[in-house]
């Protein structure tokens, strides 16, 4: 059988880093040489691959929407030449990039798997080798036509994943959705669907950086503080509320939200809880937000919500359309 071809977009992250006097920093050429020289990656059962090393390689804390655009455009340019794509990325903002790509890549039928590691390949006990090897293997043999995130034996939907552990190998979870696949002695497809037909056509929606505020409510939070964030250039505000979407019944705050939504600000209600969904009909404290024009983010992760807002706000859509689409399931990012 013809060996599949995988394109590896290597953007940076711990996986290819080396020690320096200031801590780990990206090391040019190191990962590419290591992987190319490794017998394991070149076994017959493995796909053929090309690695495109980005310049400069970055720690993912330095990622921005401009980088999401670079990665999406890169995949589009190479789309017809490869069977699948692996994006090597730092773990810190990996879930944001995976979510952003899931919205930006339109009519995707080939697998795009984002992965990385907690310990660099250059160090003892690195998780980089298994993560990359499995991601490449899955991209070649389990063509799930969506953006996913592979880490520690689990393949998650990209826009459902979130970083859960700062220093453990099980760095990611998907609190509101079962994984697409589990990797053990056998590979088990759970929610993942193999692409019924593969096409070489791919669309990319251009995104631009947007002014979006995130307010994490806490008992006694000052309304003045929230007000200070609501400048004229603000396009959207994500409210991280209590429980099923509740907020203090503070008249001044509700008035502030009401006036803001009436003048076109998109306010999305997400729960601070890691699992479960917003239901503003559950309590009077949530209902008051609904009456102030706040919309539900259902069970989206913050990463999915923020990147979806970037995606929609970049498209010259009417505010009402954005509000409507924010509450629709566009790429499997929410359950309703
Ligand atoms: N494990 C990692 O990759 C963390 C690193 N700081 C990054 O996100 O680039």
By CATH reckoning, the class of the largest domain would read: Alpha Beta
What is the fold named in CATH at topology level of the largest domain? Rossmann fold
User: Main sheet: which strands, in order across?
Assistant: 4-1-5-7-8-9-12-13
Question: How would you state the average pLDDT, rounded?
Answer: 97
Cα distance, first to last residue?
42 Å
User: What compounds sit in this structure?
Assistant: asparagine
Radius of gyration: 21 Å
Number of helices: 9
Give the DSSP E fraction (strand runs of 2 or more residues).
15-25%
Describe this structure in a few short sentences:
It holds the Pfam family Asparaginase. This protein is α/β, with parallel strands linked by helices and 336 residues long.
Descriptive account of the structure:
The chain is α/β, with parallel strands linked by helices. It has 2 domains: 5-204, Rossmann fold; 212-326, Rossmann fold (3-Layer(aba) Sandwich), CATH 3.40.50.40. The chain contains 9 helices and 18 strands. The chain has helices at 30-37, 65-78, 94-104, 128-141, 223-229, 251-262, 284-291, 302-313, 319-326, and strands at residues 5-12, 17-20, 23-26, 48-58, 84-88, 105-106, 112-115, 147-151, 154-157, 162-163, 172-173, 181-183, 187-189, 203-204, 212-216, 236-241, 266-271, 295-296. It has an 8-stranded mixed β-sheet with strand order 4-1-5-7-8-9-12-13, with helices on both faces. A 4-stranded parallel β-sheet has the order 15-16-17-18, with helices on both faces. Strand 7, helix 4 (128-141) and strand 8 (147-151) form a beta-alpha-beta unit. Helix 2 crosses helix 3 (94-104) and helix 3 crosses helix 8 (302-313). The radius of gyration is 21 Å and the shape is elongated. The chain starts with a strand and ends in a 10-residue tail after the last helix. Bound molecules: asparagine. Asparagine is lined by residues 12-14, 59-61, 90-92, 116, 118.
